[in-house]
Amino acid sequence: MTSFTMGFSKVRGPEHRRDKRMPLPVFTVKVGGQVCDTLNWSLGGLLIENYDGQLLVEMPVVIDIKIKDEHAEFTMKIQAKVVRNDRENRRLAVKYDELSPTIYDFFERGFNKRFHGRQRSPA
After folding, report:
1. CB atoms < 10 A from the CB of 65, how many?
2. CA distance 73 to 67
3. CA dihedral sign, ordered 76, 121, 70, 25
4. Which of 30, 49, 81, 83 could be 39's S-S partner, Cβ–Cβ 3.0 to 4.6 Å?
5. Are strands 60-67 and 76-86 parallel, antiparallel or unpaired?
6. What's the rounded Cα separation, in Å, for the pair 53 and 92?
7. Whole-angstrom distance, CA of residue 92 vs CA of residue 89
8. What does the angle CA 75 – CA 81 – CA 87 come to, to the nearest 5 degrees?
9. Among 106, 116, 56, which Cα is nearest to 78's?
10. pTM of the shown model
11. By CB neighbour count within 10 A (0-12 exposed, 13-18 middle, 19+ buried), where does 48 fall?
12. How far is Cα 13 from Cα 68, in angstroms, rounded to an integer?
C-alpha cells in the first residue's frame, strides 16, 4: 500500500519536525463544544483555527474529527494534549496521545478523497 501522507511535501520551507505539516485536506473538528477547522495537520497533531476557548498547555482533550464539507456525523475521536493555545490568533495546537492504525487510516482516506476523488469500485 502506498502511503500518500508520508510522501507529501512540506507546507513551507525546511522544518526540523518529526512529522511534516500538511494543509490539505482540511478537517472539521469539535473541541470543547466548538466546531472549528484545521489550519494544518500532521501524523503527530493538529493546528486548529478559530478556536476561542480556555484549554491550557498539557491539558488532555478529546477531538471529534471529520473531513470538512462531508455531510457525515463526527465518527472519529482522537485523544490529545494541548501544546499551545494562541488566544490572540485563535489557534489551538494539539498532539495525539497515540497514532493508532485507525487514526492513520482515517487520514489516509481523507488524503485519498481530496487528491484522488471518489474511490473507484472494484471491476
Report:
1. 23
2. 10
3. positive
4. 49
5. antiparallel
6. 9
7. 9
8. 100
9. 106
10. 0.77
11. buried
12. 26
Q: What is the pLDDT of residues 64-95, one digit of tens each?
A: 999 888 888 888 999 999 999 999 999 999 99
- Cα separation of 49 and 41, whole Å? 11
**Residue 81: strand pairing partners:** 60, 95
Q: What does the pLDDT profile of the chain (123 residues) look like in tens digits?
A: 344 444 444 445 554 556 677 778 889 999 989 999 999 999 899 999 999 999 999 999 999 999 888 888 888 999 999 999 999 999 999 999 998 899 889 888 887 776 665 444 444
Cβ 29 vs Cβ 65: under 8 Å: yes
For residues 55 and 99, is the Cβ–Cβ distance under 8 A? no
